[in-house]
Amino acid sequence: MDKGVLATALGSPAPFGQSQFAFMRGNAFEAKVKADGGAELLRLLYERLGGTSPAPSPDVATPDLSAAGPEGRAARTALALREATAAGGWTLLDHPMLALEVAGSPAYLEPDAVVVHPDGRWTVVEIKSFPMIDASADASKVGAAARQAAVYVLALERVAAVTEGAEVGQRVLLVCPKDFSNLPTASVVDVRKQRAVTRRQLTRLTRIEDIAADLPEGTTFDPACPSEELDAAVAAVPPAYAPECLAACELAFHCRAKSRAEGAVETLGRSVRGELGGLTTVAGVLAAAAGKEGDPADPTVAALRRAAALRAEALESAAALRAGAREAGSVQGAGAPEGAATCR
Question: How far apart are CA 197 and CA 335, in angstroms?
Answer without folding.
Answer: 70
